[in-house]
Hints:
The chain has 385 residues and is α+β, with helices and mostly antiparallel strands. The chain has two domains: 4-45 and 251-382, no CATH class; 61-232, no CATH class. The chain has helices spanning 4-11, 15-45, 71-76, 108-114, 124-132, 141-147, 189-195, 216-227, 239-248, 253-282, 284-292, 297-337, 348-375, 378-382, and strands spanning 54-59, 67-68, 81-89, 102-106, 119-121, 136-140, 154-158, 165-176, 184-188, 202-203, 205-210, 234-238. Strands 1, 3, 4, 5, 6, 7, 8, 9, 11 and 12 form a ten-stranded mixed beta sheet that branches. Strands 2-10 form a two-stranded antiparallel sheet. β7 and β8 (165-176) form a beta hairpin. α2 packs across α12 (297-337), α2 (15-45) packs antiparallel against α13 and α12 (297-337) packs antiparallel against α13 (348-375). It is elongated and about 90 Å long. It starts with a helix and ends with a helix.
Amino acid sequence: MKFLHLVLRSLMRSRRRTILTLLSLAVSVFLVATLQSILATLDGFAHNPDSANRIAIRHKVSMANFLPLRDADWIRQQPEVELVMPLQWFGGIYQDQRNFFANFAVQPEYLTGMFREEIRGYSEAGMRDFVRDRTGCVVGKALADKFGWKVGTVVPLQGTIFPVNFRLTIRDIYRGKRPADEMSLYFQYKLLEESVSWMKGRVGAFWVRVRQANDVPRVIERIDHRFRDDLEPTLSETENAFQLEFLKMMGDYGTMIHTITAAVLAAILVVTASTMGMTIRERTSEIAVLRAMGFSGHQVLGLLLAEGILLAASGGLLGIGLTVLGADLVRGNIGLAIPWLSDFQVHGSTLLFCLQASLVVGVLSTFIPAYQAVRRPIVDGLRAL
């Protein structure tokens, strides 16, 4: 601690350079922490423990192909099966293409039973109205708050996949376990079936709820075996596996995020190394004087390393602070545009990784120029006086 004042004075010899380096480090740490938190949020969406006993069944060839509704009758007869619900992604647009949110056609009487872990708070009377009203719908609270919807609001949806537009009346607003669970709209599958002639008796997917999670692999194998020789063979998988496939339609986001993270870390290493190298070279004579006064090479090396580590740690802590403060901004803005990020949060493990990375950058960027300066003969350094 007795050398702390010396370290601070040395670090602030060039205030502008130090401040610019601090800001560069802070912004870089903010980017790394945010990107890694986005990756963790997306992975969490595709690894939901509450969906362990749910199965998604779709056409084996492609998600764009349809299955006959009659398949549900055989699936319901399986002893392990609790519920079977047709589910069709509608992909409708509300007012503007930027207003993206998930909207599905479902059988309303099975909705709350199928997703009982996600749809937790709702009005019994509202759900009964939804079942009775062919043009009714239910929406999550986060989605309703985003657009200012209330019970009774008419929501126009413009079809993109299907050549039909709907005007749906909100019959209930439900609450979910997580914000992402409240970013969906559900309307009656019968309305879609009656409005699109080629959808009669067909559906994009079945959602199946099994009584025990341990029975899921056995039920998946039995279903696919039963329909493997049909004109519309099935591909059954856990809901988590289905969600992961859906996310992969955006591309290999995991590799992209890791690549960007590595590039940012390499960039801050170069910036910090340049700053510390320049700082140490400017102090060649000062280092020689310290050694001539009796400071050992290890002491001088320790002082220089302390400067680099303090600079990197300060930038890392500033970046972590920006990340924590910006989490609500990401969740409130990007999360509304991309529903999967409605649950965005920054975990302590991510912040710890960023702090450790900052310290490593501080050591790596300082050690080589500091070691070279310490190894320089004292006489050579004093000649520059």
